[in-house]
Design goal:
12 helices, antibiotic resistance, hydrolase, cell wall biogenesis/degradation
Length: about 260
Amino acid sequence: MTSGPNFMTLFDAFILGIVEGITEYLPVSSTAHLYLAGQMLGLKQDTFLTAFEIIIQIAPIFSVMLIYRERLMQSAALWIKLIAAFIPTGIVGLLFHKQIEAMFAANSTVALMILTGIAFLAVEFAYKPKAHAVKDLEGVSMKQALTVGVFQVFALVPGVSRSGMTILGGMLGGLSRDTAMAFSFLLAIPTMGAASGYTLLKEYSALSFEHFGALAIGFVVSFVVGWIAVKTFLAVVSRYSFKPFGVYLIASGLLYGLFGVELVH
């Protein structure tokens, strides 16, 4: 296949938009699921597809900004904590971006998915509501924000879920499930914004006006599905726990390993 508008249909863009919208904020690897979906659609991973994936990954950020717009507009302290939490990832990503990009050639995603699933189950089985006293975003301390930021650094490894790591970091730092999840969602604003901007600067030449239709479909679908996914995720976890996601990560990792699916690029 060749890169460009001939190899991606509007249907392909629609499907990838759905996958991105669903997986970006769930504690699973959106990168891994996007790549698997691309394989199933018969798409070639080239500079255009990389740029396309980055653009549709921006859409769920706007979904979260819409959902939390009042808190974001009213709380300067929250923005300070989000920026502080982003700093560890920003520093490590800037200093070691070449090494991180090289890791996309490593076939370690399956093992990392399984390990993340085990970590979620372990944290959930040890979860005690009294030990997770912070019930709202305003109560997150700077120390807890930095703890979440340190855990986010691990998500630089291909196949490791950013939301998964930050939620785990928040819960281990004393945040309730709901608060850890909300802080994780909001931390995507500076993190994904910076990562997407950097990648687009490198890959923008792969885009042209001919791609507008596919990009528009992918972006809009990712935004709408992302909004629905976040609202649903918040409702489900507030009533239950992260155990189903832990089981899903372990099961999907084992299935991908069994069938020899390559999930990184």
